[in-house]
Amino acid sequence: MAASVAAAAGRLRRAIRRSPSWRGLRALSSEAPPTQAAAVRDAFLNFFRDRHGHRLVPSASVRPRGDPSLLFVNAGMNQFKPIFLGTVDPRSEMAGFRRVANSQKCVRAGGRHSDLEDVGRDLSHHTFFEMLGNWAFGGEYFKEEACSMAWELLTQVYGIPEDRLWVSYFGGDPKAGLGPDLESRDVWLNLGVPASRVLSFGPEENFWEMGDTGPCGPCTEIHYDLAGGAGAPQLVELWNLVFMQHNREADGSLQPLPQRHVDTGMGLERLVAVLQGRLSTYDTDLFSPLLDAIHQGCGAPPYSGRVGAADEGRIDTAYRVVADHIRTLSVCIADGVSPGMSGAPLVLRRILRRAVRFSTEVLQAPSGFLGSLVPVVVETLGDAYPELRRSSAQIASLVSEDEAAFLASLQRGRRVIERTLKRLGPSDVFPAEVAWSLSLSGNLGLPLDLVELMLEEKGVQLDTAGLERLAQEEAQHRALQAEPVQEQGLRLNVHALGELQRRGVPPTDDSPKYSYSLRPGGGYEFSTCEAQVLQLYTEDGTAVASVGDGQRCGLLLDKTNFYAEQGGQASDRGYLVLVGQQDVLFPVARAQVCGGFILHEVAAPERLRVGDQVQLHVDEAWRLSCMEKHTAIHLLNWALREALGPGTEQRGSHLNPERLRFDVATQAPLTPEQFRAVEVTVQKAVGRDEAVYMEEVALARTAHVPGLRSLDEVYPDPVRVVSVGVPVAHALDPASRAALHTSVELCCGTHLLRTGAIGDLVIIGEFQLVKGITRLLAVTGEQAQQAREVGQSLAREVEAAAARLSQGSRHVAEAHRLSKDIGRLTDAVDTAMMPQWQRRELQAALKALQRRANTAVRKLEMGQAAQKTQELLQRHTEGPLIVDTVSTESLSMLVKVVRQLCKQAPSTSVLLLSPQPLGQVLCACQVAQSATPAFTAEAWALAVCSHMGGKAWGSRVVAQGTGSTADLEAALSAARAYALNQL
Ligand code: ATP
Ligand code: MG
């Protein structure tokens, strides 16, 4: 295929991929069964099981188990990664997999493969889709069978006319020393595909890599021509067949894999569209029930499949976004990823909010509408993925709760944008600070891309540079929050404090920080707080009567519901509005206590005056995370005492929404068993979902309560007591001894009202601060779950490595690979976020494994060297010189052979060359002791290697080097000639 044609076809395909218009083309009139999605899916699985002996395996969860490099499972091969990497436990069920097929739930939204931006705009990409795949592991079958099976299925079972199918194969990559995959090309030609529909492409398109390192290989893709002969072909990719045959090493080189594998994936939605004669995946029975339900529920004009400019009012785009997103939300929540604050949960939150916005703003959906679509999703996907049925009610209620919260924010956001626009000039960009305060990282929790969209609709540009700066500041702020630095942020200086006291200003009433309650559904409700501005300070601490124009300032109020940094709990953040003026947000970055006064650090986009009435809103998600962590710290404190004995003393602690840390005085480092015991004790208390009681009592009442925890701090009187599972009055009754059996502490922090929301607690790190004091780092909730999964998955890998080691390796290369894998695994275990007890266990196990693996490598190398030495000795009659080639995989092996040879034939000088797969030649030599002093190994190796355009190094006696040549004979002759000259 001429390069220009291939390039043109490539451009065409790329254009089509991004082209939204599957419409307006002639549809395939199809009578060929099956056509209904469920039947199409079944036909695929049955075909591979019944006709070709594949084992069917269930879809993995879309939440990657123990693989933090992935946000979501995005391809069928994810769960088989250990097989490709060769790290699978030889005793596991998976190790026995040879032919496998399945239908995998995939999510491509965020991370390496994100199709989120395309959804709604085109007619072939979804954030959630089903990938039909078949695999042949360990060379069970390869290119020929894989292509013929695919061809047979598409043309005979699904009845797709052959002339609508195009294929592509890997055209080679001279830079990487890879030739074209003519094997695949010939397979297609032999199957009868005319050469005009067999195209070749470079590595960008047709060479598949799992990551920067790891298995990879050429792929061949099957495309469907939507135009069907009417005009230029319009191709859409249906099926990708990957032939895993290389390994990308850390140094970027490619090595042949010990085993070859087939890995294929075909999008069910696209296949069904083709089989139903549709030009859009949305016009199939996978989506039409949803589109109908949206039509019914919103009363919008019926869906008519328009795209781009033709889609006036973006009605059809909204239909597609909502239908796509509710599927993704349902599948993810059923698999345990709920909308949340970071990572995959944050992506999901954005997806949910995008769906709400399109449904309410474009389709005029009533509130609560999104949740009502969940049963429709369950109806279409529940048979294939029963977990959806099981969690249907939970999904609907989560979606509805988040939808309601978001709608409230959206309304406020719209008002803020309107107002801001009023004061902008016609050519002004929209201020970054305002956009930030509306965003997920700011206060209202609106996704930034959504804010941008809302502005785009108004024809206004956003100050993106300013936004980037704010994002950086936020990252720094978070880093600072992790370390409680006393002197950060605005503070009241002594003069200001003295002035306040002189004026008789009472300390800030911050009791409203405790006014929150649990809704029947389990969510927390935080009350807002109205307050009066008592004083304003500029950044340098000067008291002023008013601020504005984006100024950063310190704000003193008569009361507040913000928690100011103290007792190791990070400050709240949030925003305030002026009473009677809801459409300007004044972001509050933090609150600090200074001499009883609480100073809020505020940015004032507009005028704010002493005497103004304001309404305060704390960032609820942020606060809730702090509450979870704080109650978790109390449980941890108590659990440590249970595990290590009553004398165990807390020395300090700190928490922010991300993680918590706890300093504890210990006699000796904690053992893995103690770590586990602590975690189990916390888990049990969490599992009991105990009530957390909080009450203010006279300090004197807390004086003689056995077991009551307090720090070496001065506590206010009255003091707050936090007691888990036991009412405060009972806990303080010395006779009850309750504080010896549960967590009872003096604490002014904000806590959960029930322990269940902590979810789980995992200690992920320990550091010796000073002798006798250990700092523990821990995570809770979803992060804890993830840490456990990472730990389990690493433990499985260690077990697999142990099993591989016990099986023994026959080849040096295999043993080397295992030794390297153990090294990589050790790095992963050292740095992963995982349970600390497990890290210690795995580190110990890996150390022993590494020793054994290295010994195994050495033994094999010695054995192999001995064998090769014998072969060479047999080939060469005794004489002063041996110059020959030998096959080895490494320079160190080659040197070993040379050394053994010289040991057995001490009066012989030896030089060996070893050609490698990609043209490189290794060289090693040793000169006999009896040789003349002028004859040195180093010079000999240098002569030969420079002949091959390479380099050499070594000593008088032994030397080694590398070069590159296609003419080995000439190199050998040069070696002989040099030596004969010296002898
Ligand atoms: P495209 O170029 O169309 O985005 P891709 O190269 O990203 O596809 P692969 O990673 O090879 O696709 O995935 C294998 C198959 O999965 C594709 O051939 C296609 O049928 C399907 N597929 C991929 N991405 C999506 C998506 N976002 N929505 C629906 N189906 C998809
Ligand atoms: Mg793609």
Write a brief caption for the model.
39% of the residues lie in helices and 21% in strands. It starts with a helix and ends with a helix.
Walk me through the topology.
Layout: H1 3-18, H2 37-51, E1 55-56, H3 81-85, E2 99-107, E3 128-136, H4 143-157, E4 165-170, H5 182-190, E5 198-201, H6 203-206, E6 207-209, E7 214-225, E8 235-248, E9 254-267, H7 268-275, H8 288-298, H9 315-334, H10 343-362, H11 369-372, H12 374-381, H13 387-390, H14 392-422, H15 432-438, H16 448-457, H17 464-482, H18 494-502, E10 516-518, E11 524-526, E12 529-537, E13 543-544, E14 546-547, E15 551-557, E16 574-578, E17 581-594, E18 597-604, E19 608-609, E20 613-618, H19 620-644, E21 649-655, E22 660-665, H20 672-687, E23 692-697, E24 719-724, H21 728-732, E25 744-746, E26 761-770, E27 773-780, H22 781-807, H23 812-831, H24 836-875, E28 881-885, H25 891-904, E29 909-915, E30 920-926, H26 937-947, E31 951-954, E32 958-964, H27 968-982
Parallel strand pairs: 1-2, 4-5, 28-29
Antiparallel strand pairs: 2-3, 3-9, 4-7, 6-7, 7-8, 8-9, 10-11, 12-13, 12-15, 12-20, 14-19, 15-18, 16-17, 16-20, 17-18, 21-22, 22-27, 23-24, 24-25, 26-27, 29-30, 30-32, 31-32
Helix pairs in contact: 4-5, 8-9, 9-10, 9-14, 10-14, 15-17, 19-20, 20-24, 22-23, 22-24, 23-24, 24-25, 26-27
Bound molecules: adenosine-5'-triphosphate (ATP) and magnesium ion.
